[in-house]
Amino acid sequence: MGKTKGDLEAEISNALTHWEKTYLGRGSISVKSDILRNMIIVTLRGILTPAEYSLCSDKDGLLSVKKHRNSLVESGVDDLKEIIYNITQFEVVSMHTDLSTKTGERVMVFKLAGNLQNAIEERG
To answer: At residue 1, does pLDDT exceed 70?
Structure first.
């Protein structure tokens, strides 16, 4: 019997936490990954620094923080796709991400080349 959905979700969360710490220099407070059909939805909480929250008090600062943080993640997208592939054996077709400067939460959506949820259920 292969890994369960929960096993894979935990492995993805741990791998992304490790990536954040090694690539970005610090990790989020919590990471939750959910496999849904051909998508992996990852929620990262507590990613902004106190200084970034302070900058977000006006529109220019808010846009600057979002642009900077999104550029950092986008620059590591090839690593992220490789991490997801190594865990799931499914190619990442596209990755979408956004950051809430109000909550300090980032959401990442990885769209896969196949239906991972069905593959897990069929193996189970």
So the answer is: no
Q: What are the extents of the domains in the chain?
A: 5-123
pLDDT digits (tens, 9 = 90+) for 65-92: 999 888 989 899 999 999 999 999 999 9
Count Cβ atoms within 10 A of the Cβ of residue 103 and give its class: 0-12 exposed, 13-18 middle, 19 or more buried. Answer: exposed
Q: Confirm if 5 and 35 have CB atoms less than 8 A apart.
A: yes
Q: What is the CATH number of domain 5-123?
A: 3.30.980
- Cβ distance 53 to 104 under 8 Å? yes
Nearest in space to 39 (alpha carbons), one of 99, 111, 89, 113: 111
Task: Output the six-digit token pair for 51.
Answer: 């200084």
Q: What distance in Å separates the CA atoms of residue 93 and residue 58, rounded to the nearest whole number?
A: 35
Asked if 105 and 47 count as a contact pair (C-beta separation under 8 A), the reply is yes
